[in-house]
Amino acid sequence: MVIFYFIWKEGKTVQTILKMTDIDKRFSGVQALDKARLDLRRGEVHALMGENGAGKSTLMKVLCGIHSPDGGSIELFGRQEHFSGIRQAQAAGISIIHQELNMMNHLTVAQNIFIGREPVKNGFIQDKKMQEDAAELFERIGVSIDPSARLGSLTVGKQQMVEISKAISFDAGILILDEPTAALTHSEVEELFKIMKDLKKKGIGMIYISHRMDEINRISDRITVMRDGQTVGTLNTADTTKDEIVSMMVGRVVYGDKKHHSTCPKDSPEVLRVEGLSVPGTVKELSFSLKKGEILGFAGLMGAGRTEAARAIYGADRKSEGKITVNGVEREITSPAEAVRCGICYLSEDRKRYGLMLDKSVKDNTVISSLGRFVRNGFILDSAARSASEEVNKRLRTKTPSVATPVRNLSGGNQQKVIIARWLLKDSDIFIFDEPTRGIDIGAKSEIYELINGLAQKGKSVIIISGELAELQRLCDRIIVMCEGRRTAELDIEDATQELIMKYATAREVI
Predict the structure, then answer these.
(1) Looking at the domain covering 14-93+172-251, what would its CATH class be?
(2) Which of 10, 152, 243, 353 has the CB geometry, 3.0–4.6 Å to 105, for a possible disulfide?
(3) Which pLDDT does position 431 carry in this prediction?
(4) How far apart (Å, rounded) are the C-alpha atoms in residues 161 and 85?
């Protein structure tokens, strides 16, 4: 029997279904949560905000039974609870959608949704019934995905929708969404918000973790802000402003204005030229140039071919046609190692799959591309490597107990900083940043923007691929717009309005 708490507010009865009080959690002597608090009402979207390392994900992992709290209490539907595992939490009505996808690409969509809960008859798994159940689930929540498709064949956005559908399939009373829109297109975000509104009507309470202010203002009812493991306060979304939220999160102003003119000298020499680059099925005859000290942006919708182009330039994927010239010399770059030798580095949008050694330390992840600097007579100079790692991560304000900490234990934003630290230490000439601030909080974004601008001021050249138009407008000197594998426009920053960028991002040919 479910028992609800009742709170009287403005003449209405509000049902509180979750109350977390004075939650404490320590890891290796580090206070991750310090008397953190959160409550959730029936049928509301409650945004949870804070810088990376503020404690948001840790608090949710305590709620889901992944971590055991060192102090405090959890009341769920009026009962004191203490979960020793995620299955107990799911059985009690809590489902979480993690920021990083946690599914199996070799299985079908239906198998991923019902893994461990497959319909069985006479000892055999009923695949047809499983696909029918998945199709019924998709129809109920308005998602168009083939249940029999192999998950790995779907776009990242569609995979995210599958994970969201899986969480909903548990008939949860509480749904936790951790950066659910990070990999979604505009249309997929609209689809998600429609689903969330339908879930609200059914009385499901949702905790929504995001760094995107516009989304928070649009979808949430209340906002709780955390800083340094503590709850700073809870606000009604309709009664607050962006500046007030930012002030609570970081205590400083971090938003900058749009860049109004290029800061790259007109007579700056060309360091990279790409001519007629093609990648089968994704990129078609792409040409552009990059100057010394320039920040060049790539805009476009998901599937435009921006990442595929970057990976081909870096040698991670094989191009079918095209010429790449670095500092006036034509190069045949067939591997990342060759790209690094040419002075090109690449920060992938999928940091866990392509960028990190999760079980290795912050130090190891930082120095891996510069290891030759720390080897003498066949031995690694560990002290020198540690000092270099500490220095560059300190510049980035990477939040970690020490550089000996496994990078797996860091928050998503701080993991991103470790990869950036790696390339800063390598001191390459051309930096390709693919979604450098995805999943990173407002304060950390500002720091990374400063670093990128600092690289350009030192004569480094930067390519930025980003789905956030405001980010491109703030940083770039020029913007290349792509649609369906082709370059549809090249815009000087003074002309690059969001409306014009979107016009070219949806144009199949050059307008």
Answers:
(1) alpha beta
(2) 152
(3) 94
(4) 24
Positive or negative, the CA dihedral 293, 297, 298, 302 is: positive
Question: CA-CA distance, 322 to 501, in Å (whole number)?
Answer: 26
What is the average pLDDT score of the chain?
A: 86
Identify whether the C-beta of residue 431 lies closer than 8 Å to the C-beta of residue 455: yes
Select the more confidently predicted residue: 222 or 119.
222
Share of the chain above pLDDT 90, in %: 46
Cα separation, 363 vs 382, whole angstroms: 9
What residues contact residue 276 under an 8 Å CB cut-off, 6+ apart? 285, 286, 287, 321, 322, 323
pLDDT for the residue numbered 11: 43
The pLDDT confidence band at residue 282, using thresholds 50, 70 and 90, is very high
* Measured distance CA(103)–CA(160) in Å, rounded: 9
Q: 90 pLDDT exceeds 90?
A: no
Q: Are 356 and 419 in contact (CB under 8 A)?
A: yes
Domain ranges across the chain: 14-93+172-251, 104-169, 268-343+431-439+461-511, 351-427
Q: b/e for 28-62, b at 16 or more Cβ within 10 A?
A: eeeebbbebbbbbbbbbbbbbbbbbbbbbbbbbbb
Confidence of residue 251 (pLDDT cuts 50, 70, 90): low
> What is the DSSP annotation of 371-415?
GGGGEETTEE-HHHHHHHHHHHHHHTT---S-TTSBGGGS-HHHH
pLDDT at residue 13 in the model: 52
d(CA 417, CA 415): 5
CATH fold for domain 268-343+431-439+461-511: Rossmann fold (3.40.50)
What's the average model confidence in pLDDT over 183-206? 84
Q: Quick one: which H or E segment has residue 178?
A: strand 174-178
CA distance linking residue 123 with residue 443, whole number of Å: 54
Give the number of other Cβ atoms within 10 Å of residue 249's Cβ. 21
Helix (H) or strand (E) holding 17: strand 12-27
Cα–Cα dist 84/97, whole Å: 19
Inter-residue contact 280 to 485 (CB < 8 Å) = no
